[in-house]
Structures are given as structure tokens and as C-alpha cells.
Amino acid sequence: MQVPLQIAFEHIGPSQPIEARVRSEAEKLEEFYDRITSARVVIGLPQHRHQKGDTYRVRIHLTIPGAPDIVINRDPAVTGVHEDAYVTIRDAFKAARRQLQDLVRERQGQVKVHEEQPHGVIASLHPDMDFGFITSTDNREIYFHRNSVEGAAFDKLVVGDSVQFSEELGVKGPQATFVRPERRHG
Predict the structure, then answer these.
(1) Phi/psi of residue 133, each to 5°?
(2) What CATH code is carried by the domain that includes residue 147?
(3) Do residues 135 and 121 make contact, with C-beta atoms less than 8 angstroms apart?
(4) Quick one: which of 120, 15, 4 has its CA closest to 58?
(5) What is the pLDDT along the chain (186 residues), one digit of tens a residue?
(6) What's the pTM value of the predicted model, to 2 decimals?
(7) Which of 107, 127, 161 is a domain's end point?
(8) What is the largest CA-CA distance in the chain?
(9) Those residues with Cβ within 8 angstroms of residue 96's Cβ, 6 or more apart along the chain or in another chain
(10) Which domain does 137 fall in, by range?
(11) Do 63 and 150 sit in the same domain of this protein?
């Protein structure tokens, strides 16, 4: 790291064993991804419970060049768990490692990019026979059946409505296996 690891304690006195665990986990992150610019970890004791014991909150803020900051927040108020500081630290750093892995995959081009679904316009409807046709953006005519329309919205379709669809080659040519009406504005 270009900036030394910052560890802060909120509503709890500094603890050498907890600080050692945080440093160990941060070193593992840096071994996995050595381009982390800075890391700040805050260990807090958000509430004091006399009957059930204390819960610990851990926040991690990582700065990486050319990417959005990674911010992890493990808060017992949200999850209702993490009564042990070491478990909370481990879980928070696991989440940070997963986000770093996603960043590395993205930078290596290993992230699957989904193609945008094709768009079209309802060209004709035959409600008495439960089918219709879509004109695609490349002016092809694509058959669809009532059952392929999302949310049983076939009866709400009108000629001229914009739709997204998934296409495959059927027995008689291209057919839409899934049709999603696009929201109308206004």
C-alpha cells in the first residue's frame, strides 16, 4: 500500500490482538491484489448489551487506482450477528476479497458481458388465435405466441408497442421465445 494501513477503534479501547488480526487480513488482501493504494479499517462497538454480550461493527475502505473505492460495512444492527470481533473482521475481509476478485476479473476481461436483448415493435396481433408478429429493428418479422409474453400481458399489447424479445429459429422461421413489453411513459 502506498499509504500505511489505518486502524481506528470506535467506542472501544485499542486492542493489540484485534489490530494484529486486521493487519494479517490486510496483508492477505495485498498479496491477492498489490495495487491497493490505501486501506482504512474501523472496528466499533455500536452498542453495549449486558445480557447477550457485545456486538462489533467493522468498516473497511479500500482505495484502488482507476476503480471506485471498495467499502465494506459489517454491522450487527443490520444482520443481527457478529458478536465476536474476530468473526466480524474475517467476514468483512472476505467480502472485500470478493469485491477485489470481481475487479480483477473485470480488468482481465473475464467478466461476461451480456448482449442487450433485441428490441422491436408489435406489427400485428391475432388474439383469436393467440399469436402475433414483431418487426425487429433490422426489419425482420418474428412470430410470437401468447405464452411467450411476460406476465400474461398478451391481452394488453397494442400494435405499435415497443417490446424486448429473445429469438430462436422455429420450424417456420424466427420466433420469439420471450417477449417483454417496454414500459410506456406518460
Answers:
(1) -130, 145
(2) 2.40.50.140
(3) yes
(4) 15
(5) 778 899 999 888 899 999 999 999 999 998 888 889 999 999 987 655 554 556 788 999 999 888 888 888 887 655 555 567 888 899 899 999 999 988 888 877 766 656 677 889 999 999 999 999 999 988 889 999 998 898 878 999 999 999 999 888 877 888 988 899 987 654
(6) 0.56
(7) 107
(8) 76
(9) 29, 60, 62, 70, 72
(10) 119-181
(11) no
